[in-house]
Design brief:
Layout lengths: L8 E5 L3 H12 L3 E6 L9 H10 L16 E5 L12 E4 L5 H11 L8 E4 L6 H6 L9 E6 L8 E6 L5 H13 L4 E5 L7 H19 L3 H7 L12 H7 L1 H14 L13 H8 L12 E4 L2 E6 L4 E4 L6 H7 L4 H10 L3 H24 L3 H12 L5 H7 L2 H13 L11 H4 L5 E2 L2 E4 L4 E3 L26 E5 L3 E5 L5 E6 L8 H17 L2 E4 L12 H10 L2 H19 L5 E10 L1 H8 L2 E11 L13 H12 L4 H13 L3 E2 L2 H7 L7 E3 L5 H14 L11 E2 L2 H17 L5 H14 L9 E2 L1 H16 L2 H13 L6
Parallel strand pairs: 1-2, 1-4, 2-3, 4-5, 5-6, 7-8, 17-18, 18-19, 19-20, 20-22
Antiparallel strand pairs: 6-7, 9-10, 10-11, 12-13, 13-14, 15-16, 16-17, 20-21, 23-24
Helix pairs in contact: 1-2, 6-13, 6-14, 8-9, 12-13, 13-16, 18-20, 20-21, 20-28, 22-23, 22-28, 23-27, 26-27, 27-28
C-alpha cells in the first residue's frame, strides 16, 4: 500500500461523546461520515446516533467548525445499516473500553468491511495486539490503534499503534492522512497500557496528587503552582482532572493498576479515597458541575479531602516559591527548588524528579524515542516543553545525579536505579536526532513525504535552531526574508502578539514595494500564533496622554494606506493566519489577494470592545462588498456585515470567519498549522504563474445613504431599550452604521473607497475623544479585557 490513502468516506462506530466528536472533526475536514450506534428501542432506529449529532451543535467549545458541518454526518445503526460500511475507506471503532464488546463488534462488521478499508480502534489504553487477536484474519493487516485525544477538534495529538501484523505501508498512509487532512500531530506509540501520553501524563498527575497529600499542599495551591508557572496549561492538575472527568481519570488509572503489576511505581497507581467518594456520589467534575472544584455563583469552592466538604478556594502559592519559579535559567531554577526547605518547593522538585525518573526507566518500552515522548506530552497534555526537554534544559548530568541521590536516600517514589544509558549521555535531543533507548541510537524525525509540507516542523530542545531564510529588509516591527533560490518573500511581524504599530505599518509598505520589484509575491506569516491581535494601543499611549490627536489620526491614515497597499499590490499578497486575527489583523487579511487560514483561526473586527470602530479599511471593505453583492437592496446586503462589526462578532473557526464574511469563499482553510507557509507559498506561485493582475480599483460604488443608516439605527434603539447594549455601544454602532452607508448622502449615491476611509478616520477620532472610549482603552490596557460602560 502506498503512503497516500484516499479516504473519502469514514464510519465511526459508537455515538458516545468521543465517537460523535471524532465524527464531527471528520465532517469538519469535508469527509462524508457515517455515525453508528445501537438501534434505538423505540421510534427511529437511528435515534441514538441522530441525538448525538444534534448534541454536537450544543457543545462548548464546539466540536464543529460551523453548525452546518453536522449535516455531513449520517446517522446509522448496527441493526439495518451495516451495508453502508462497504462504501467506507476507514472505520474507527469508539465504543466503551470493554475488550469483549469490541471483539463482538469486529466479528459483526467483518463481512461488510471493504477489501481495502482500514479498521482502527480509538481505545485509550487496551492492548492493540489483544484486540487484533479477535479481529478476523482477513482484517489483521489493516487493523491498528488510532487514539484521538479529547476534544478531537482541538487536541493536536493522535497516537497510532500497530499490531504485530499491521501493514507498515498502511500505517504510513494513515499517518499522512491524519497529518494533512485531519491536521494532527502523529506519534507512533508502542503497544503498552495507556500508550505514551496517558501513561506519562497520568503518572505525572498521580505523582502530583501523592506529593501534595504527603506535604499538605492544598488543591488550589497545587493548581496555582503546576499551571503556567510550570509551563503547563491553566487547568494545571486538579482542574484538568475535573475537565477530563474524574471517572475517566479513574478508568485510565485502573488500566495501569490492572495491566502494569510489574511496574516499580505500581503501588501509586490508585485513585485516592476522596476522589473515589466523589465519583460514587456522581461529582465527576465539569460535566456534573462539581468535582474537585465547584462553582457557586461567582465563587469557586474547593473540596476539603479531610471533611468531604467544599471550602473557599483561590489560595495561591507562596511568594518565596513563585520567585524561584521565575528564575529564567532552568538549571538554576530546579537547583533552587531542590535546595529550598519550603514545602511547596520540595513538592515541585519531587513531582518533576519522579516524572523524570519514570520516563527514563520506561523509555525503551513505551516509545520509539525521546522526541515522541516530548511531543506526546506537549500535544496531549499541553505542556510548553516535554519532560525530556525540561530535563535536558536543566542540565542532563546534574539532574541525573540528583535523581540517583534522592532515590538512593529513599526520598523518591521508587528506589529503582536509573537505566545505564542515562549516565552514558549528555543529552537525549541533538541536531543529529533524538535518543532511542530500545535501539541505543539517535533517531531522526519521520521522512514521510507528507512532512515536506511542514517547512518549519515543531522542534525540541537540542534541535538545530530553525533558520528563517535570508533577511531582505528589517526594522523594529517586521522582518522580510526569503529562502535562498525561492521567488516568494515572507513578511513576519516581530512585535508582541504581532500587534500593529508604526514600525509594522512602515514595514508592510516597504515589503510590498520590494516584493513588486523582485519576487513573484509576498506571504505574511509568523512562526507562531496569533496572526495579530490588531492595532498596538500602547504605541498610541504618549500621544493619547498628551492630547496629540493629530499624530494618532496620521497613524490611522498610515494604517489605511498599508491595507490599500496590500490590496492593490502588483503581485499577490497572501495572508497565512492562525490563532487570533483581531481588529487590524483582520483588516489586513480582508485586503489580501488570498488568505490561507488554519481551521483554528479566530477572526473578527472587535474594536467596539475598546470603544472604537474599524478604521483600517474594514468598514470600507464591507460597504464595498455589500454594494457589489446587492440585488437592488443595499441595506439587505449590508445588514449582516454591519451586525458583525457592531456586535464585534468573532468567527470561532476559519469556516465561521468565511460565513461571516471576514474571509472570502475563495480563501483556503488548512487543518495543520505547520502546513500554512507551504500552502500559502503555493497559492502565491499559482496566482503568479497564471498571470496575476492586481484588482481594478473601483471608480465608484453605490451606498445606502442616510436612509439606510436610519433603518439600521431603528434596530439599535430596540436593543438599547431592551438593555442589550449601553448608550455608548449605541453611539459607536451609530457611527459604524453611518460609515458603512456612506454618511450624510442620498441612497444610491456613488462614492469611492477613499470616501469611506475618510469617514472611518473622522468617526474613529471622534470616538477617541470621548470619555467613555478613553475609559475602555485604559481598562483594556490595564486588565487585558473589555469594559462595557
Amino acid at each position: 500500500m502506498a503512503n497516500t490513502v484516499h479516504i473519502r468516506q469514514v464510519a465511526v462506530l459508537g455515538a458516545g461523546v468521543m465517537g460523535a466528536q471524532i465524527a464531527a472533526h471528520l465532517a469538519n475536514a469535508g469527509i462524508k461520515t457515517v455515525l453508528f450506534d445501537l438501534p434505538a428501542k423505540e421510534g427511529d432506529a437511528n435515534g441514538i446516533a441522530t441525538k448525538a449529532i444534534a448534541n454536537l451543535k450544543k457543545m462548548k467549545p464546539s466540536p464543529l467548525a460551523s453548525a452546518m458541518r453536522a449535516d455531513h454526518i449520517e446517522p446509522a445503526n448496527y441493526g439495518s445499516d451495516l451495508e453502508k460500511l462497504k462504501d467506507c475507506d476507514l472505520i474507527i471503532e469508539a465504543i466503551a473500553e470493554r475488550l469483549d464488546w469490541k471483539l463482538d463488534l469486529y466479528a459483526k462488521i467483518a463481512p461488510f468491511v471493504a477489501p481495502h478499508a482500514i479498521l482502527a480502534s480509538n481505545t485509550s489504553g487496551l492492548s492493540i495486539n489483544s484486540l487484533a487477536g479477535g479481529v478476523p484474519e482477513q482484517l489483521r493487516s489493516r487493523f491498528c490503534g488510532i487514539h484521538f485525544f479529547n476534544p478531537p477538534r482541538y487536541m493536536y495529538l493522535v497516537e497510532l499503534i500497530a499490531d504485530s501484523q499491521t501493514d507498515p505501508a498502511m500505517m504510513d498512509a494513515l499517518e499522512s492522512f491524519l497529518a494533512t487532512r485531519m491536521g494532527k500531530g502523529v506519534v507512533r506509540a508502542k503497544d503498552t497500557p495507556n500508550f505514551v501520553a496517558n501513561r506519562i501524563g497520568v503518572f505525572s498527575m498521580l505523582a502530583t496528587i501523592y506529593h501534595a497529600e504527603r506535604l499538605g499542599i492544598r488543591f488550589d495551591v497545587v493548581d496555582d503552582l503546576t499551571g503556567p508557572r510550570l509551563g503547563r496549561p491553566k487547568s494545571a492538575t486538579f482542574r484538568t482532572a475535573d475537565v477530563v472527568g474524574l471517572d475517566t481519570f479513574a478508568h485510565v488509572v485502573k488500566t495501569m493498576t490492572e495491566q502494569l503489576a510489574s511496574d516499580p511505581w505500581h503501588k501509586y497507581f490508585t485513585v485516592p479515597a476522596w476522589m473515589q467518594k466523589l465519583i460514587e456520589n456522581g461529582a465527576l467534575g465539569q460535566k456534573t458541575k462539581a468535582g474537585v472544584f465547584k462553582k457557586v455563583g461567582r465563587d469557586v469552592l474547593m473540596l476539603d479531602p479531610a471533611t468531604g466538604e467544599y471550602i473557599a478556594g483561590g489560595q495561591k502559592g507562596s511568594d518565596e516559591v513563585k520567585a524561584l519559579l521565575k528564575i529564567t535559567d532552568p538549571a538554576a531554577r530546579f537547583k533552587a527548588l531542590r535546595e529550598s526547605a519550603h514545602p511547596e518547593a520540595q513538592f515541585l522538585w519531587a513531582c518533576m524528579r519522579d516524572v523524570w525518573h519514570y520516563i527514563s526507566y520506561h523509555l525503551d518500552t513505551i516509545a520509539d524515542n525521546a522526541r515522541d515522548v516530548d511531543f506526546a506530552i506537549r500535544w496531549g497534555f499541553g505542556w510548553n516543553q516535554g519532560p525530556f526537554e525540561q530535563w535536558q534544559a536543566a542540565g542532563w548530568k546534574d539532574i541525573a545525579a540528583a535523581i540517583a541521590a534522592d532515590s538512593a536516600a529513599g526520598q523518591a517514589m521508587s528506589d529503582v536505579a536509573l537505566p545505564a544509558w542515562v549516565a552514558s549521555r549528555d543529552a537525549v535531543h541533538t541536531p543529529e536526532g533524538s535518543f532511542s533507548a530500545a535501539e541505543n541510537a539517535l533517531k531522526q524525525r519521520s521522512n514521510l513525504p507528507v512532512y515536506k509540507r511542514q517547512l518549519y516542523p515543531p522542534t525540541v530542545v537540542g534541535d538545530a535552531a530553525p533558520v528563517y531564510g535570508e533577511t531582505i529588509f528589517e526594522n523594529d516591527g517586521v522582518r522580510l526574508w526569503v529562502q535562498p533560490g525561492e521567488d516568494v518573500a515572507v513578511l513576519s511581524f516581530k512585535t508582541k502578539a504581532h500587534c500593529i504599530g508604526p514600525d509594522v505599518l512602515a514595514g508592510v509598505n516597504q515589503a510590498v514595494t520590494i516584493a513588486e520589484e523582485r519576487y513573484a509575491g509576498l506571504v505574511v506569516w509568523h512562526p507562531e500564533a496569533p496572526f495579530s491581535v490588531g492595532a498596538d494601543l500602547m504605541s498610541m499611549g504618549p500621544a493619547f496622554m498628551t492630547g496629540d490627536f493629530a499624530s494618532i489620526e496620521n497613524m490611522v491614515a498610515e494604517f489605511q494606506k498599508a491595507s490599500m497597499r496590500i490590496k492593490y499590490a502588483a503581485v499577490p499578497v497572501v495572508g497565512a493566519a492562525q490563532g487570533y486575527a483581531f481588529g487590524g489583523g483582520c483588516e489586513f487579511l480582508m485586503h489580501c489577494s488570498r488568505v490561507v487560514a488554519c481551521l483554528e483561526t479566530y477572526i473578527g473586527l472587535v474594536e467596539v470592545g475598546v470603544g472604537l470602530l474599524p478604521a483600517g479599511g474594514g468598514c470600507k471593505e464591507f460597504a464595498l462588498r455589500a454594494s457589489q453583492e446587492a440585488k437592488g437592496d443595499i441595506v439587505a446586503a449590508l445588514k449582516d456585515y454591519y451586525l458583525s462589526v457592531a456586535m464585534a462578532k468573532v468567527g470561532t473557526s476559519a469556516e465561521e470567519g468565511q460565513q461571516i464574511g471576514y474571509l472570502r469563499s475563495s480563501d483556503i482553510i488548512v487543518f495543520n498549522p505547520n502546513e500554512l507557509l507551504y500552502v500559502a507559498k503555493a497559492q502565491v506561485r499559482a496566482m503568479s504563474e497564471s498571470g496575476y493582475k492586481a484588482p481594478v480599483k473601483p471608480k465608484s460604488f453605490a451606498v445606502a445613504g442616510r436612509a439606510g443608516a436610519a433603518t439600521i439605527k431603528g434596530q439599535l434603539i430596540n436593543m438599547l431599550e431592551g438593555g442589550f447594549i449601553s448608550k455608548h455601544d449605541y453611539l459607536i454602532a451609530g457611527h459604524i452604521a453611518e460609515i458603512m452607508t456612506g454618511g450624510d448622502v442620498d441612497a444610491g449615491t456613488l462614492v469611492d473607497e477613499e470616501w469611506i476611509l475618510k469617514l472611518e478616520r473622522e468617526r474613529f477620532m471622534k470616538l477617541l475623544k470621548t470619555g467613555k472610549t478613553q475609559e475602555r482603552i485604559m481598562y483594556m490596557l490595564e486588565n487585558n479585557k473589555p469594559l462595557r460602560n
